[in-house]
Every structure is written in C-alpha cells, then in structure tokens.
C-alpha cells in the first residue's frame, strides 16, 4: 500500500470535529458554506450544475493483476496504476488544503457480507447525502479501518495528460487497493454508484448476484424489480401493502435478498402526492436532500414539475423515512422477478410471463427507451439497451451475472415477468402512457398469484406469453396490437424494435447457451 493510500484510507484528513457529523450539523455547515438552501418543508435543496447526471465517459478502473482478466474491458475503461498513483497524490494534496467531511458508514444489510465504507467529501451536503444512502453503524461502534475509501472533491480538476483520463472530471476505481476517487463533479449519484460498482465486482466471487433492482416483501413472497432509470423501480416497489426492502441495489445470496444500501435516491421529476404518497411524504422531511429540484428562493417552495435544470431531479432520504420499510433490509428468496421497461415504441404488453431463458435474455438485454425531452437532441423514441439493467456499474462480463441469475431462478422456482410501464396504443407522441393504476393492479395480481390461474396467449412478435384477462383490467389493454388505431402501424413499430433487440444481442450471443439465444424476439421475417 502506498503512502498516499495510507494517508487517505486509514487516517482522517482533517480535524476530529468534521467526522461523522449528523444532519443538524451538516445543515449548518452547508448553509454556512452557501452550498444549499432550506425548503419550506425542511429539506436541503442543492444544485450540481454543470453535471446533473453521471459522467460514464469519465469513469475508469485500474488495470492490474487483479482486474486484467476479470474485468470486461469491452465496456470499461482502463487506467494504469502509475496514473492512479499520480491522481491519488494530487487529490490528497488538494484535500489537505480544504475542510473535509468524513463519514464512517457500512453497506450490505446481510451481516455475512457487511463492508465498512469511509467517505471523505469536500461538501457538507455530500456528507449528508451518503449518510442518507448507506447504512449507519451503531452509535457505540468505534470506526475501524475501512474496506473501501472514497474521496470526493468537486473543486479538483484532473489533468488528462498526467492522470490518463479524458477531461477535468474523473471517477477512478482501484479494486485492489479498495479506493475510489471522484473529482470535478458535484453530482452525488457518482458516490453511490462507485460503491455499487465495487460490490458488482466483489460479490460474484462470494456467490452473490448483485442486482440493480428494487425489492419488497409480503407474506405471499418477496419480489425484486429490475429496471433502468425512469422505468418505475422506486415508485412500484414503494407499495403500502408490501414491506419495502430497498429501492435500487441488492444482493441475492444463499440466505435470500439483502439491501446494499440504507436509503433511497428517488427520481423527483413530476412527483405526485396522489400517485406516490410514500415518496412525496419522505421528500418533506428534515434531513432529506433535494438534488436539482427547482425552488423559489423567496418563498422556499419547491416545484417538482419544473425540469428547467434537468429531468434527472432527485430525492435522497434514509430508508426509514418510508413508513413500511424493512428495519433489517433483508427478505427471503424472491418468489417473483420483475423486469421493468418503459417502451416508448408502444408495442410491448403491459405484462408478460417469462420462462427462465427469456428472463436471462431480457436481463442481458436491459431494454428501455428514451423519449423526447429527457435528453438534448432526442426528438423521437430511442431504444436503450443497458446490460443487466446497469451496464455502467457492471465491471465483469454480463454472462457472469446472467449465469448467476438463471441459477437463482431455477434453484428457487421464481416466477418471472416483463412489465411495460411505457406507452400503449401507439408510440410516444401518439399513444398514451400506461396508467400507473393499471401497472400496480397487474403487478399485484402477479405477485399475489392471481395471474397463475388465468389462460395465456402466445405473442407472435416477441415470443411472450400474455394473460387473456386480469382482475379489474380492460382485456383489450392486454393485447397491444388491438390498442393501436392501425394494425399495420403496430407491426411496423414491432418489427423495428425486434431488429434493435437482435442487433444489440449479437455481441452477447456467443456467451450464452442455445436456449437463451432462442428466447430472442421472433424477428421481422417471422413476424
């Protein structure tokens, strides 16, 4: 271990009083340093411009003896150990010229896999953010040497020629030394996802499937919800009739499912008290961080409908701010595995039953769609395929995660579902968004077992099994072509999406068995 690693990883950078501060003290420090405003509700409101989302092109993994053969370099950028050493030394020197807030936290609710995380951050609100998102140790625990150290310095500017990075923004991860460096960005999601990336590398070797998913529990059985941003993981998992285990990151091990985190990072754009009452109530608590949410400086009222700064507005709060959240952060083996997609082409059914091979196919595909307005330059629906529903955070080859998922599904007999939270009756701009009440009703029927008792039809386009009817649902909605004004229009859009699925899977096909390959949509010719 280098001297620089020892300085940051094992010793506090600054005075004792900046260690493990609670929410009241961090509020005071954030306001004193003009990092934030306080909303009328008591939430802390912050801005992260110019970065209002993650910077995946600026993320690097140190390539060394540990990672050379174990990281999937086709989707991850390497950084040399010598370049990381220079970056570490320069960021450590930069940190010593500033006040640094330190939090000693933990991840992984399963005690068998518990890890100690130490986060040094330049901003007080970053310290509050990560305190909300990770697991707080017992107050009588003495901080010990961390399993992972993260240094976050938004004011630091990387030098590409010296540090081997792309720009002045850098996210560099060293799996061998268990250190993450984040510089040149205020966006707090980088801290959370740095932890997740480390766990996605470490957990498979322990026989644990790391998952970018939400999870909840009920006497009828636990459920996990895979999905990319905007597909409804947080919203649909926060069901008042079920106990929330967590909203974003979990492991599936020998004893069941466990939360990696201790908090939630919910999307806030157009948050509605009527449709998302639990999350809306959490947003009004003292201690919550509202990231890039619009606020009137005079009245201190927030406006969740305002997307002038970004569509990616966020709320960071501890899990116990949700009334029916699990205290343990754990559940048994899932009875149901749900894969959420926001299909802006409007051709996928609102729910479909998957066999294990289809579940692996759709897990490896990780399909959703962007729509106009969510990103600059997006004028029509664009398919997005993010392997394992979280490609930027998956250091290993996707087939490793896919094999683990299939093993768990077969071992525990889990039911698998594909749920479309996107459009029906036509594409974005012509059809309508799937009503959230419909999605909730279909999910409830699936999770409670009602959909096991109804007949199914085979879908000739995507090879899916869709229910002929479901309790309280208009049967016509379950047959996507019937919802379109023109069947020819549906067929054209369906074939377009099928071709995109097939093109995306070409690079993965050599790594899966014929059964998973055959789970692909039927193709334009067959359709």
CATH names the topology of the largest domain as Phosphoenolpyruvate Carboxykinase, domain 1
How many domains? The number is 3
Average pLDDT score: 92
List low-pLDDT spans. 1-12, 372-379
Query: What is the C-alpha radius of gyration, as a whole number of Å?
Result: 23 Å
Structural class: alpha+beta
| Helix content bin | 25-40%
The first-level CATH class of the largest domain is given as Alpha Beta
* Name of the CATH superfamily of the largest domain: Phosphoenolpyruvate Carboxykinase, domain 1
Rough outline: globular
Approximately how much beta-strand content do the residues carry? 15-25%
Cα separation of the termini? 59 Å
Question: Could you please describe the fold and organization of this structure?
Answer:
The chain is of the alpha+beta class and 527 residues long. The chain folds into three domains: 3-34 and 55-206, Phosphoenolpyruvate Carboxykinase, domain 1; 264-321, Phosphoenolpyruvate Carboxykinase, domain 2; 334-517, Phosphoenolpyruvate Carboxykinase, domain 3. Strands 10, 11, 12, 13, 14, 20, 21, 22 and 25 form a nine-stranded mixed beta sheet that branches. Helix 1 packs across helix 3 (81-96) and helix 2 (23-32) runs antiparallel to helix 4 (124-133).
């Amino acid at each position: 271990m280098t001297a620089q690693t020892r300085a940051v990883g094992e010793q506090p950078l600054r005075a004792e009083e900046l260690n493990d501060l609670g929410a009241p003290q961090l509020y005071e420090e954030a306001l004193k340093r003009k990092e934030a405003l306080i909303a009328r509700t008591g939430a802390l409101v912050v801005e992260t411009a110019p970065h209002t989302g993650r910077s995946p092109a600026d993320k690097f993994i140190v390539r060394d003896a540990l990672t050379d053969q174990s990281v999937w370099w086709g989707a991850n950028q390497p950084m040399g150990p010598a370049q990381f050493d220079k970056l570490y030394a320069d960021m450590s020197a930069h940190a010593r010229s500033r006040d640094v807030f330190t939090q000693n936290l933990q991840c992984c609710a399963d005690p068998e896999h518990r890890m100690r995380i130490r986060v040094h951050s330049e901003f007080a609100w970053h310290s509050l953010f990560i305190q909300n998102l990770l697991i707080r140790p017992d107050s009588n625990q003495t901080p010990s040497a961390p399993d992972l150290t993260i240094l976050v310095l938004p004011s630091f500017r990387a030098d590409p020629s010296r540090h081997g990075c792309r720009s002045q923004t850098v996210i560099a991860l060293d799996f061998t030394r268990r250190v993450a460096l984040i510089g040149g960005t205020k966006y707090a999601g980088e801290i959370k996802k740095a932890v997740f990336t480390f766990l996605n590398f470490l957990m498979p070797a322990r026989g644990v499937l790391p998952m970018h998913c939400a999870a909840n529990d009920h006497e009828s059985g636990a459920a996990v919800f895979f999905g990319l941003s905007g597909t409804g993981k947080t919203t649909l998992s926060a069901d008042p009739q079920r106990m929330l285990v967590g909203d974003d990151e979990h492991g599936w091990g020998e004893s069941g499912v466990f939360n990696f985190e201790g908090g939630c990072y919910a999307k806030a754009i157009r948050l509605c008290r009527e449709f998302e009452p639990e999350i809306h109530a959490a947003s009004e608590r003292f201690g919550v961080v509202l990231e890039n949410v619009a606020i009137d400086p005079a009245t201190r009222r927030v406006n969740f409908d305002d997307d002038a700064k970004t569509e990616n507005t966020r709320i960071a709060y501890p899990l116990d701010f949700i009334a029916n959240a699990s205290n343990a952060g754990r559940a048994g083996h899932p009875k149901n595995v749900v894969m959420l997609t926001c299909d802006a082409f409007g051709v996928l059914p609102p729910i479909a039953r998957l066999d294990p091979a289809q579940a692996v196919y759709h897990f490896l595909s990780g399909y959703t769609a962007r729509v106009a307005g969510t990103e600059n330059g997006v004028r029509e629906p664009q398919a997005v395929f993010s392997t394992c529903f979280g490609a930027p955070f998956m250091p290993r080859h996707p087939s490793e995660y896919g094999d683990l998922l299939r093993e768990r599904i077969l071992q525990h007999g889990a039911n698998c579902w594909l749920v479309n939270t996107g459009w029906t009756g036509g594409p974005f701009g012509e059809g309508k968004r799937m009503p959230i009440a419909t999605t909730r009703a279909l999910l409830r029927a699936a999770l409670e077992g009602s959909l096991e008792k109804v007949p199914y039809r085979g879908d000739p386009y995507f090879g899916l099994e869709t229910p002929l009817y479901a309790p309280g649902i208009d049967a016509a909605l379950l047959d996507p072509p019937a919802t379109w004004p023109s069947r020819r229009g549906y067929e054209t859009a369906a074939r377009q999406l099928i071709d995109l699925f097939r093109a995306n899977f070409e690079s993965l096909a050599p790594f899966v068995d014929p059964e998973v390959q055959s789970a692909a949509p039927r193709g334009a010719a067959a359709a």
